[in-house]
Amino acid sequence: MRSRRHLLQAGMLSGLGMGLADWFAATDVRASATVAKPAKACIFLFMWGGPSQLETFDMKPDAPAEVRGSFNPVSTRVAGMPICEHFTHLAQMTDKLAIVRSLSHDDPAHLSSGHAAVTGQPAPVVKSDATPPSNNDSPHLGSLVSKLRPSEQGVPSFVTLPWKALHPAAPGGEAPGQHGGWLGPAHDGLLLTGDPNAADWKPSSLALPADMSLARLESRVTLLKQLDAQRRQMESDAPLLGRGTDDPTATLRQHQQRAHRLLASPHVRKAFDLAAEPEKVRQRYGRNIHGQSVLMARRLVEHGVPLVSVNWHNDGRNFWDTHVNNFNRLKDDLIPPSDRALSALLEDLEQRGMLDETLVVWVGEFGRKPQINPANAGREHWPFCYSGLMAGGGIRGGTVYGASDKLAAHPIRDPVSPYDFGTTIVHALGMDPETYLPDREGRPRPITAGKVIHPLFTG
Q1: pTM, 2 dp
Q2: Nearest to 364 by CA among 345, 346, 387, 341
Q3: pLDDT per residue over 101-119, tens digit each?
Q4: Of the candidates 250, 260, 302, 307, which has an alpha carbon nearest to the alpha carbon of residue 281?
């Protein structure tokens, strides 16, 4: 970890013959707490597709009918903090929430703006739905945690479920920014796929083959360790020139070692055992793919996973990309499971004494256009103004930050970029936003691209 000030020092040292690689090696890499009491974990709820600000947390009941739509605001636990009437559970928990109503950027493309949402940094190619993931992507926020605040309990440092965010209509398909990026594959997250609400669902990443016992697995691990030691000895006798940090053999070994550790650990297997949750709790989160994914996220942070990203799923009908039938889709398919899961999570974390140390984030990649399309009752992409939520982890509850104009089209006070939003998450987790880290080629890269929104914090 290196700050901008330290980077200038490194530049002076280079004049004395000490290169950046030597400088990085000369000092250790660790997270520097920048808040009095940093959050221990983060549950990042990524509302893939772009939720409408006008039907969620920035309603405009006095706007013209072609803007305000058919939903009404409802009073909440916090006076002067109305939200959409269909967030019936969350309305009783707004004292836990900080609503940011002034998120804004100018990228209308799902993939590149998705990169900005989950990394806090611009995509290598902006305004593009045709650019797939690459080694030039910025690391996911979870990958930064894996590097700077790794788990110390044997569990993964970064888990994503229930899928990698994809857009079927986008030429690039998978959104960039969902892996280790320039930090390298060692900091990719563990991906849990499938529907956790299904009766037969099990984490595929932790499943042993039918003919493999734990004892047999241990014997194989021992053999691999012996072979690896022999390989290292051979390489020290005859160094391999030109092998960089992207050596596929080294990468494979890293993934094998991580898989073996996970498979052999009772603590890890217990963390992923969703069936251990009481049925009453599972019902409270919602017996659907999103609700059970959020419950799994709570279970994982409780067992020591520092960052879990829950990507809104695509089951073919209830994607947040509401170009068509916006109001019925939100009322029937999208808001109810989101409302139920988020409110259950906040309540559950508070009851377990975990809310103060767990940052909860709810945000999409952009919002929706104020003017409703009269032909299909849909709303188009609108990155210029949208809303996001934070709660727990030192965040000041019951607050609204920023404001939009009378149509929720543009911020009129305290604009916030997705880079500011991501930098604030980094800050809340006790990582210094001024940090630089070496990329795969040893070049220093900043881990943030914005500024911290300090008024969101309690202290």
Answers
A1: 0.86
A2: 387
A3: 999 999 999 999 999 999 9
A4: 302
